[in-house]
Design a protein that fits this description.
Strand order of the largest sheet: 1-2
Oligomer: single chain
Strand content: 5-15%
Number of strands: 4
Radius of gyration: 22 Å
Distance between the termini: 69 Å
Bound molecules: zinc ion
Length: 181
């Protein structure tokens, strides 16, 4: 088994950590902590706006922001980027000292600060094209499906069960009632 990205490029999962042999998501409590944290976080990130777009347009301009394509960093301190802005992050990380913050919570703030101050990759900068041809990329990741990701969330599961119970609950049906004839 190899490594796959799920939903967004960037974070990589060991297939055997997150999928059963049938290719279905494992229950989250059977996943290693780190994989579970990232997977749970991805549910929010797959529909998130690109950080860089958001820094440009702000909450008032969410319509102008591209949806994220790629995620870097640690869960909850991650940076998500659209394809247009990914080179800016890669440049910052590789050439402008960003790699000091690898694996650290500061990574997000530091990148935001740099970008907000006008930091950009030079025209034509394309940092990690080798990633695309990495042999480990060959296994096809499953379709990004936020609903599938929801299935094994303990909280979600609980809600779903509660919902079903409510639905199954007969609504004050009194079969013995006397109906007017
Ligand atoms: Zn963007």
């Amino acid at each position: 088994m190899g490594k796959v990205s799920i939903g967004l490029r960037g974070w990589r999962f060991e297939e055997s950590d997150v999928f059963t042999e049938n290719g279905e998501f494992k229950p989250t409590d059977e996943m290693p902590d780190d994989a579970r944290k990232r997977l749970v976080r991805l549910q929010a990130l797959v529909t998130a706006p690109c950080d860089a777009c958001w820094l440009i347009h702000g909450d008032a301009g969410l319509d102008e922001c591209n949806v994220a394509d790629v995620v870097y960093g640690e869960p909850l301190a991650e940076v998500v980027l659209c394809a247009d802005h990914e080179p800016d992050f890669l440049y910052w990380f590789a050439e402008a000292g960003g790699d000091r913050f690898k694996g650290q919570q500061e990574l997000q703030d530091e990148f935001h600060e740099w970008f907000a101050d006008g930091g950009r990759a030079p025209e034509g900068y394309a940092g990690v094209e080798h990633v695309e041809t990495d042999p480990e990329d060959v296994p096809e990741p499953p379709e990004p499906d936020p609903e599938a990701l929801n299935v094994d969330q303990p909280g979600e599961e609980q809600r779903r069960i509660d919902l079903r119970q409510e639905l199954d609950e007969p609504e004050d049906l009194d079969l013995d009632a006397d109906y007017p004839s």
